[in-house]
Amino acid sequence: MPTPRVLVTTAAEATIDLLRDEHGPLMFHQSGGCCDGSSPMCFAKGEFRVGGNDVWLGRIHGCDFFMSASQFEYWKHTQLTVDVVKGRGASFSLEIPLGVRFLIRSRLFTEAEEQDMAPVFAGDEYPVEA
């Protein structure tokens, strides 16, 4: 199995479940930040338009995860884990009214992991879930 580029904690999965119950299918987009503590934005699926200037990194808990292509150049050697912490973020992300915010925890891939990476796709060419 290829090395996943993005993971999710069980705490973040619980928050995703709450948001999905209220908003339906969800998606994530990481459009800023350079390191641990950056906040990905959570939207109702399709609410944020992605295209060829975005990269699809995979799915977390049934949600597509995208990043701007320019930012991916900085993060392509890094495995991201979406977590959730108490506190109000400064964004339009869906979790903000819950008094929590999603954040990124990261680590560099090992050389062995980089030999078998999950593929990425342009935001307008990512695989549709069956």
TrEMBL record:
InterPro entries: DUF779. This is DUF779 domain-containing protein. It holds the Pfam family DUF779. The lineage of its organism: Bacteria, Pseudomonadati, Bacteroidota, Cytophagia, Cytophagales.
